[in-house]
Amino acid sequence: MEIRSLKFDGEVLHILDQRKLPFEFINVPCKTEKDVWEAINKMMIRGAPAIGVAAAYGMYLGIKNFTGTSGNLLKRLKEVKEYLDTARPTAVNLKWATERILKLAEKFKDLPSEELKQTILLEAIAMEKEDAERNFKIGEFGSALFKDGDTIMTICNTGALATVAYGTAFSVIRRSFEKYKDIKAIALETRPYLQGARLTALELKEAGIPFHLITDNMSGFIMSKGLVSGIVVGADRIASNGDTANKIGTYTLAVLAMHHKIPFYVAAPISTIDPHIESGAEIPIEERNPDEVTHCGGKRIAPEGIKVYNPAFDVTPNGLIDAIITDKGVIRKPFKESIKDILK
């Protein structure tokens, strides 16, 4: 079964509602930028690369039925961008995608409005194709860091459901499985939204990759038993110094990995690198609905009237990261210089 996070049919963007997985496969039709905003904000679609591509199509859907001059269309496009950018604050790919579409439109602002619309659509389609190509390269570069018999641990979901195809950290696991003998995976369930249990376990099973699913608080014990060869995680935003924001729990894994002398890798396309911020301290961290913590599967699991922290992400300092695997190659320390070089 081919799992696709999104599909554009020329008129409508169909988004697989990942909140229902693995029990139901429901595609949500998005016909306007408001539909796309809702899909991103409510986590029907998640994962930085997938969010970016969805936002690119959202830019097109926001002006698809616009009538007027190219100048007014450009004004409308800026409004759509500002609106979509508010859907989720941490994933840098969202603003990267909307900015790319806007800059293209500004470049071709003298085109008739209908031609400008088509130019925007073709760019969104190109971005979808590019994402798949980049993710395959991430897998190829990352697999060189592993060997026969390795067991790779990961958190959250970084596969085709978090991207257009292949995935980021998942692509490294999959490519290693294709190239070497006896490759296994360990997936953390990823509380509170259970992306590991619901989504990564589904993708590993469909790919035929041997794996174990564990709860988040089992990771240190599993490492202490020598059962982990390396850890690969995704990223929602990487600062110019290599500090990385990813799903909550990633920082904990990195600390444990350093203690147990286990290689810790981040896998992401270079579009996830934000060269405009100096460190992870500048990355906004999304605080989500407390119900995600107090409820599981729609049922309350905690007392009424309690206070809850629910940050969706944490920041892993660059000192805990051994390498960053990108579509342009593997970045090593010192990250500030290496990132600057790879972005040239």
Q: Features of this protein?
A:
about 350 residues, alpha/beta, Four Helix Bundle (Hemerythrin (Met), subunit A), Rossmann fold, 2 domains, 16 strands, about 40% helix, globular
The amount of helix comes to 40-55%
Morphology: globular
Structural class: alpha/beta
Number of helices: 11
**CATH class category of the largest domain:** Alpha Beta
Largest sheet: 7 strands, mixed
Query: Helix-strand pattern, N to C?
Result: EEEHHHHHEHEHEHEEEHEEHEEEEEH
The CATH superfamily title of the largest domain:
Translation initiation factor eif-2b, domain 2
Mean pLDDT, to the nearest integer, reads 95
Kindly report the spatial arrangement of strands forming the biggest sheet.
Answer: 6-5-4-7-10-15-16
Low-confidence stretches: none
- Could you tell me the CATH topology label of the largest domain: Rossmann fold
Strand content: 15-25%
